[in-house]
Amino acid sequence: MFSFMTFFIFYFQKHTSNMSLLTHLLACLFGMGSWVSINGLWVELPLLVPQIPEGWYLPSYLSILIQMANVGPLFVTLMHRFRPGALNEAAVIYVIIGLGTVASFLLGFFWKETVVVAGVPRSVALLVLTFFLAVVDCTSSVTFLPFMMRLKTQYLTTYYIGEGVSGLLPALVALIQGVGVVHCMNSTQSLNHTLNSSDSSVTFDLQAQYQPANFSTEVFFFFLSAMMLVCLVAFLLLNYHPSVAREHPSGQYTNGVKKKSQRNRMWAEQKPMMEPYRSAIQKRRSSFGTGSYSWTQVFYIFVILAWANALTNVVLPSVQSYSCLPYGNNAYHLSATMAAVANPLACFVAMFFPIRSLLLMGVLTVIGSGVGAYIMGMAVLSPCPLLADETSGGVIIVLAWILFVLTLSYVKVIIGVILRDEGHSALVWCGAVVQLGSLLGAVTMFPVVSVYSYFSSGDPCNTKCP
Questions:
Q1: H or E element: which one contains 368?
Q2: How many domains is the chain partitioned into structurally?
Q3: Are 339 and 397 in contact (CB under 8 A)?
Q4: Looking at residue 111, which CATH number applies to its domain?
Q5: Which family is this sequence assigned to (predicted)?
Q6: What is the model's pLDDT at position 459?
Q7: Domain span at residue 65?
Q8: Percentages helix, strand, coil for the chain, rounded to the nearest 5?
């Protein structure tokens, strides 16, 4: 074990000797702000739902609001397509991070406030502020990624690690808070009760009781606001810190800060960044980016990107409780936590092993999709999936969630690295396709889960299957 750790430390130092650790940290913190607000809102649902009039319809409303918020990335993508260079990318990022910070902070004060609409109380403040958070997070997909073009390729992987942490960190804080912690308590029920006590029977059942949180929902929202503020500070330093400026791939610097003319920025919008090893006389295989890939390969890459994001962002998360709760509350919490850990872990692996093989990408996508099919099958069979009464069933479902997230997260990072080499516009389209995949997943799963109620939830305390 000692020799393995020594090798790992040496390997890490060798690959980071020419890179600024400060820049890695800032890129990670910047990526962490991409989806931390919406991810935090999802994990807080068990505490929100009992105290608002929408009840468990709130997740459905959130899904609709998040898809409506795609107006943000649509606007940015159209601007890059038809008015390249006209949109100030840094200004847009400042605005959306500031909006996310303020909206998260206001949620701490107004999330329980209701307004009577058409004679029915509604959580208008919660829904409106959630929409703003969704606009922030959705728009980050088409602004944060292209901004990373200003740094060396290695930092894009670090950004993806931060994006993975944006799901892991709220989940860990929610665990500390005690969200969704259930204790199975004995309860008695009297059946066939008559005036003659001898004619009555008593049954003993286990009833799920949710435990009170260790700290309030208001504190959790203030934490999310603080995380957005950290992201804002990281973005400021990425723009103005001298040691970060030295990590730019090329350019002139004054006092360590890169100088850019409007002409250069316009060029960056329209032209891809050429790799130093690429021959100037190499024949272009398409007009996409540097011409390294044919249009068939570009289509293949984007289809996999949309598919992977549809599965990991919407399709499988929407049925996670159905696939895990029949195996017990511990299996559910463990699968959710370990899946959140698997995302940044896959990004960390990609930092050292960025294998850009299209064949490997396809193989990993097939493996991840196959594991996802197993998870979906268990959700369909809920509340009585395979091995529901066996310990091995819980172990398998947890491992399935880890492998599913691990493989497809690695695929997404490698696609990001490939498209980064194809230029600024390629990363804009990368973010747009990410949102398109999530949108298609939501359109597919919303009616199945929320309208037609196709899935049946398992009871964490009373799983009785034939």
A1: helix 358-381
A2: 2
A3: no
A4: 1.20.1250.20
A5: Belongs to the riboflavin transporter family.
A6: 62
A7: 19-178+213-247
A8: 70, 5, 25
- Burial class (CB within 10 angstroms; exposed 0-12, middle 13-18, buried 19+) of 125: middle
31 contacts 162 by C-beta, under 8 angstroms: yes
Looking at the predicted structure, is the pLDDT value of residue 258 above 80?
A: no
Number of Cβ within a 10 Å radius of residue 3:
7
- Interatomic CA distance for residues 278 and 285, integer angstroms: 13
Give the list of residues 6+ apart from residue 81 with CB closer than 8 angstroms, or none. Answer: none
The single-letter code of the amino acid at 222 is: F
Residue among 92, 59, 135 nearest 445 (CA): 59
Collapsing DSSP to helix, strand or coil, 345 comes out as helix
Give Cβ neighbours of residue 323 (< 8 Å, ≥ 6 apart): 335, 375, 376, 378, 379, 382, 385, 397
Whether residue 402 is contained in a domain is answered as yes
What is the distance between the alpha carbons of residues 308 and 366, in angstroms, rounded to a whole number?
10
* Nearby residues of 260 by Cβ (< 8 Å), 6 or more positions away: 251
Give SS3 for 384: coil
Q: Torsions phi, psi of 287, nearest 5?
A: -90, 5
Burial profile 146-168: b = 16 or more Cβ within 10 angstroms, e = fewer = bbbbbbbbbbbbbbbbbbbbbbb
Burial class for 378, CB neighbours closer than 10 Å (0-12, 13-18, 19+): buried
> In terms of domains, do 227 and 165 share one?
yes
Write phi, then psi, for 209 (nearest 5 degrees).
-125, 120
Cα–Cα separations (whole angstroms), residue 326 to 51, 294, 364, 373, 375: 26, 47, 28, 17, 12
pTM: 0.74
CA atoms within 13 A on the CB side of 349: 15
Tell me, yes or no, whether 282 lies in a domain. Answer: no
Rg (the chain; Cα; Å)? 24
H/E stretch holding 122 reads strand 120-122
Asked whether residue 140 falls in the same domain as residue 59, the answer is yes
Q: Are 264 and 424 in contact (CB under 8 A)?
A: no
Written as six digits, the tokens of 58 are 């709130």
Report pLDDT digits (tens) over 354-407: 788 899 999 999 999 999 999 999 988 888 888 877 888 889 999 999 999 999
Provide the 3-class DSSP secondary structure of residue 388: coil
Confidence of residue 255 (pLDDT cuts 50, 70, 90): very low
Q: What is the CATH number of the domain that holds 434?
A: 1.20.1250
Concatenating the DSSP letter of every residue in 236-272 gives: HHHHH-HHHHTTSSS-EEETTEEE--HHHHHHHHHSP
Q: Which amino acid, residue 174?
A: A
